[in-house]
Amino acid sequence: MRLPPQTQEATAPEIHAYILGAGITSLSAAVHLLQEGHLPASHIHILETLDQAGGGTVSCGDAEQGYHYRAGGMPLLNGEAMATLLAEVPSETHPGKSVLDDLYEYWGLSASSAHQQQQQQQQQSSECHQTRLLRRSKHGLVRIDCKRSTNLGLRDRMEVFRFMNKRETVLGRSRISDYFGKGFFGGCYWGVLSTTFGFKPCHSAAEFHRALHRFGHDLSHLTSSHPRPLDGGQYNRHESLVAPTARFLRDQGVDFQFKTTVSDIIFADAPDTVPSSSSTAAPTNSRGSTPARANSFGSAHQKLPEDDDSKKSRQPEQQPYPPRLVSAIIAHPFNEPEQTIRVQPHDIVLVSLGSAMSGSSLGSNTTAPPLYQMEADHELDENWLLWLELTTKDPRRLGNAYNFCTRLEESRLESFTITLRAGGNCIIDRITGAGTGIQTVKGNGLFVSLIDAPWVVSLHVPPQPVFPDQPGHVQVLWGYALYPERKGEVVQKTMLECTGEEILREVLAQLNFKDAEMERILQGALTVPCVVPRMAAGLLPRGEGNRPRVIPPAIRNLGLIGQFVEIEGETGVTAMEYSVLGAQMAVRKLIGRQAATEEHQQHKVKESRKRSWLPLPCA
Ligand SMILES: Cc1cc2nc3c(=O)[nH]c(=O)nc-3n(C[C@H](O)[C@H](O)[C@H](O)COP(=O)(O)OP(=O)(O)OC[C@H]3O[C@@H](n4cnc5c(N)ncnc54)[C@H](O)[C@@H]3O)c2cc1C
């Protein structure tokens, strides 16, 4: 199909934006289109398979049946991108304020100096000692806090130093295990990083490289100030961050089309009026940024100068990118005929790629998650199917979905939610060492990892209550395991085969609970296990181009968002922050407002590179 040449620039009121999915990534794109782009709310169309907004963060269950805290409790480490988003969502309770103000108020920070106060709090918190790892010794549990005991020996220090000073391009598709010895993987430094982000030795060296540059120099800062104000408020992160954003958009009149699945995106050749130089080269850098331009929606049709990045990435022998446009979206409303949504050249289409939740398999306290769902080709959800379709159409520009959705052995983790009617305090006391004379400071929420346990289990004890309907006497804990395919010591089964009760039994045994106490806790507990075969898919080794750019070269009305796009210098281990940042970059680029943040982004990348020279923790 060939579209008519573009004759005049479109203005905000004429533009329609189509956003696939209603997870936090897509919602943040909608907020920025509304607040920064000034698109009429009714021109923002969100097409979502499910019947509600929130995607992977929506939880389910109750105190009677047991909660399933879906997107769990790994540290979020939300930062500037999330703050920018929440500052644009008005408070539901305080007129004239934002959700960001509400969060700061909840954590006792004043909005004007919140950043400074937050840093002070984090500083104080990182000066306290707080259990982060639990190791076993013949004397019982050893509680290790990041400040004191995650030091590196000389050999490991040298390995880390050498690794950090490699260029990312040299690392290619290599794995973390290609650069470090066995000793490194047995140590606490690796223990903290791997359990905080879900890294395994087989994962991407390039992603680990980015994570080390960002966090590697100060692990205590990374984890001992958990939770942080931007990671959630009174209840869980969905209730505090995602639900108010969705309600705001709905109240503004954004067009949510639930129970509607998008199966294909149709492209057309772009009009001849596009200057040849912009179509033959990738017109954006990997952050989708462009030089300063007027605040005009027509800017998407202007000639964009080639930047350094695209010059570098374009090999002399490479064919030029043919200029294209999204011309239609194929949607399937539930129980209705297929629809073809026509997309004009000046419209915007934002596609969220891939999904960590795809193929998740839920068990119960008395049943293990069904295993048949965990096969590579089973239960690929709409998100992957669509990306696979796009990969087939244009692998050079739209990435390689196969790289991320088929290696379940390497991307699979298992999570579990424990609903405790009694015994929660015993578990917290056991973790912190209360009553033993060696108690470490209790934080307002704990994240600890049992790194000697066969499954390598991490436990998150969030501030209670986690859910609005949670009764006062009930506590909810969340956990996940890095190696669910290994056999437990007490239950003598792989975690994948275990019921919720068996998982909790193994965890309690690893925490050194004796039989009677263990039985008492088990009686008052409901544990819901969930195998998530692609939870760590974003950490799999990847080659250049496997992750597409936020704005694919020479496709002027398409933005790609989510955890699987490439944002130079940023690490996807801060999953939500990364996705929100990508959505902001896509929107700003497509509406021609990226210039303001351009310099700042470049500064951030440079700063993160400089950190490789900071001293590493030493023995
Ligand atoms: C067990 C688990 C624990 C996690 N813990 C954390 C954590 O601690 N910290 C963190 O930052 N992140 C965590 N994550 C990741 C977290 O879920 C993501 O950061 C966040 O949900 C990503 O949001 P998203 O909008 O990109 O994708 P999703 O939340 O997956 O939303 C995508 C939405 O798009 C819809 N959709 C997809 N394809 C189509 C289509 N073709 N047509 C129509 N609709 C479509 C889906 O139905 C879904 O609603 C966790 C994930 C899992 C699985």
TrEMBL record:
Compositional bias annotation for Basic and acidic residues: 303-315
Chain positions covered by the region annotation Disordered: 273-322, 598-619
MF-aspect GO terms: FAD binding; oleate hydratase activity
Record field: compositional bias (Polar residues): 285-299
UniProt feature, compositional bias: Low complexity: 273-284
Record SUPFAM superfamilies: FAD/NAD(P)-binding domain
GO biological process: fatty acid metabolic process
Superkingdom per UniProt: Eukaryota
Pfam short name (any one): MCRA
Coiled coil: none
Gene3D superfamilies cross-referenced by the UniProt entry: 3.30.9.80, FAD/NAD(P)-binding domain
Name this protein carries in UniProt: 67 kDa myosin-cross-reactive antigen like protein
Organism: Aspergillus saccharolyticus JOP 1030-1
